[in-house]
Amino acid sequence: MTELTITVRYFAAARAAAGIETETLSVPAGTTINDVVGELAGRGAELAKVLARCSYLRDGVAVRDRSVALQTPATVDVLPPFAGG
Question: Which InterPro entries does the UniProt entry name for this protein (predicted)?
Fold first, then answer.
């Protein structure tokens, strides 16, 4: 099976919970955002809690359906809810 390299970038509370700003993962072709989130959430309760509230961008575009397979190398941004004002 073909492997894809994806870059995961964490912002705000997600960065704090992950303990890193960015990382590179090798995943099988066909992996979904849900799969990536599940793998990341398995790292710890605090990160899982933050990820459950996050929205995601794939290559700068909002992910509406997290079950769509990643076909090419991608950048996935993890965006927790932001308070504005």
Answer: Beta-grasp_dom_sf (IPR012675), MOCS2A (IPR044672), Mopterin_synth/thiamin_S_b (IPR016155), ThiS/MoaD-like (IPR003749)
pLDDT digits (tens, 9 = 90+) for 33-76: 999 999 999 999 999 999 999 999 999 999 999 999 998 889 99
Task: Return the pLDDT at 2.
Answer: 87
- Tell which CATH architecture fits domain 3-79: Roll (3.10)
Q: Based on the number of CB atoms within 10 Å of its own CB, is 64 exposed (0-12), middle (13-18) or buried (19 or more)?
A: exposed
- Can you read off the two tokens belonging to residue 63? 């992910």
**What torsion do the CA atoms of 30, 34, 37, 38 make, to the nearest 10 degrees?**
-90
- Rounded Cα distance, 57 and 76, in Å: 6
3-state helix/strand/coil string of 47-79: HHHHHHHCEEEECCEECCCCCCECCCCEEEEEE
